[in-house]
TrEMBL record:
Belongs to the class-I aminoacyl-tRNA synthetase family. CDD domains: CysRS_core (cd00672). The lineage of its organism: Bacteria, Bacillati, Bacillota, Tissierellia, Tissierellales. Pfam families: CysS_C, DALR_2, tRNA-synt_1e. One of its GO terms (molecular function) is cysteine-tRNA ligase activity. It catalyses: tRNA(Cys) + L-cysteine + ATP = L-cysteinyl-tRNA(Cys) + AMP + diphosphate. ATP binds at residue 268. Its EC number is 6.1.1.16. It is found in: Cytoplasm. This is Cysteine--tRNA ligase.
Length: 463
């Protein structure tokens, strides 16, 4: 399997630190508001990578943090005359609702809150101060970027340019314009914790480094997030972590591309963003998940209503194939295999895996799934054999599960009632009571159910 490493700017063969074990950290949301579609993309993309690792037999530790102390939370709490902790609790709850809609929690995910790690944060900062890589100033503690080896190696930023102050606001308390805050001194009305340098709270960059180190170790396999986090966030994580430990922080850095709306980057500042909750009012969030996987993760993807409608239509086709197979497999079918069809199924499975092994190319992988669906329909049309159809169904659902789709089920009570009527109709036809059989067909049609009599049995679908 090859992954594009943002650090080396090339695809590299993936080799985990420990055999069949992967440690992944993905920067999670700042929980002061609903997440938007742009926030959802890395969550869906790297959840899919985690799923694929599991499919390939890896044990995966996957951390997606909550930033629950930050200027944005403090401002929201002031606006609502409540506490930062109440704001965080509320929006973590809202996040979990959206995350479940996006099918992110089929597998275990570790969701630490930054405020749960204050003690290890203080130890981390203290270690940097002892090394002479961090210094207190006016109640704050800053990291000295001149003490970091190869600062700017991830983003390609030139430290001389940063030192000039061209991109960083000059602060007189800093030794260098590019130095960043590790610990923020207490301000009136803000939450604070005691520290050797005075009461205060952690800086944003510090939080992720400490949670990754504490939960996954000093060196991890993969660190991921949106490409907008490369600088300064990920760059600063690398600088402080590697300066403290003297070890590589992450062996692979993965970054997803941005989402656009009419060709313009989706962002809150431009007012052209959609929250996941707003999308859920129009589409099932499974459609959004599938849409976010329809392009290669490093490419930009343009969000629109038409694109979502097209995605929904494609997803419905896949559900149709799934449901058709399930109905056939419940009925009486000829046992046996079709060697040519079995070979086609294996071919598409291998194409799917080749796509996923090629830097998580979900666009190509979904194409393989649609081709498999077409082959299954062709096989069914010519009269399928049960063993081959069962094998195809198992493969189809395995690959769909890697993508995190095709998990929805209609109301089982309604399905049972439909199946009962079909059994009654079957008995009526066997007894040559065609009037009753036709009446059941008409009753089902009035309920939005179309039936089709085939040599494998009676099939039904919603219309």
């Amino acid at each position: 399997m090859k992954l594009f490493n943002s650090m080396t700017r090339q695809k590299e063969e993936f080799k985990s630190l420990e055999d069949k074990k992967v440690r992944m950290y993905n920067c999670g949301p700042t929980v002061y508001n609903f997440i938007h579609v742009g926030n959802a993309r890395p969550l869906v993309v790297f959840d899919t990578l985690r799923r694929y690792f599991i499919y390939k037999g890896y044990d995966v530790d996957f951390v997606v943090n909550f930033t629950d102390i930050d200027d944005k939370l403090i401002n929201r709490a002031k606006d609502e005359n409540t506490t930062v902790f109440d704001v965080a609790d509320r929006y973590i709850g809202e996040f979990m609702q959206d995350a479940n809609g996006l099918n992110l929690y089929t597998y275990k995910t570790i969701n630490p809150r930054a405020t749960e790690f204050i003690e290890p944060m203080l130890e981390f900062v203290g270690g940097l101060v002892e090394k002479g890589a961090a210094y207190p100033a006016d109640g704050d503690v800053y990291f000295d970027i001149t003490k970091a080896k190869d600062y700017g190696k991830l983003s390609g930023k030139n430290i001389d340019e940063l030192q000039s102050g061209a991109r960083i606001e000059v602060n007189s308390a800093k030794k260098n314009p590019g130095d960043f805050v590790l610990w923020k001194g207490k301000k009136e009305g803000e939450p604070f914790w005691a520290s050797p340098w005075g009461d205060g709270r952690p800086g944003w960059h510090l939080e992720c480094s400490v949670m990754a180190k504490t939960l996954l170790g000093e060196t991890i396999d993969i660190h991921s997030g949106g490409e907008d986090l490369q600088f300064p966030h990920h760059e600063n994580e690398i600088a402080q972590s590697e300066t403290l430990t003297g070890k590589t922080f992450a062996n692979y850095w993965l970054h997803n591309g941005m989402i656009t709306v009419d060709g313009t980057k989706m962002s809150k500042s431009l007012g052209n963003f959609f929250t996941v909750r707003e999308v859920a009012n129009v589409f099932d969030l499974e459609v959004l998940r599938f849409f976010l996987l329809s392009a290669h993760y490093r490419s930009p993807i343009n969000y629109s209503y038409d694109a979502m409608e097209q995605t929904k239509a494609g997803l419905d086709r896949l559900y149709g194939v799934r449901d058709h197979m399930e109905q056939l497999l419940k009925g009486d079918m000829e046992a046996g295999n079709d060697a040519d069809f079995d070979a086609e199924v294996q071919k598409e499975k291998e194409e799917f895996m080749a796509a996923m092994d090629d830097d998580l190319n979900t666009a190509r992988a979904t194409g393989a799934l649609f081709t498999l669906a077409r082959d299954i329909n062709t096989f069914i049309a010519k009269g399928p054999k049960k063993d081959s159809l069962q094998s195809a169904y198992d493969t189809f659902m395995e690959l769909a599960d890697v993508l995190g789709i095709l998990y929805r089920r209609e109301e089982t009570d309604e399905d049972s009632a439909i199946e009962a009527l079909l059994e009654e109709r079957k008995a009526a036809r066997a007894n040559k009571d065609f009037a009753r059989a036709d009446a059941i067909r008409d009753e089902l049609f009035e309920k939005g159910i179309a039936i089709e009599d085939t040599r494998e049995g009676t099939l039904w679908k919603r219309i």
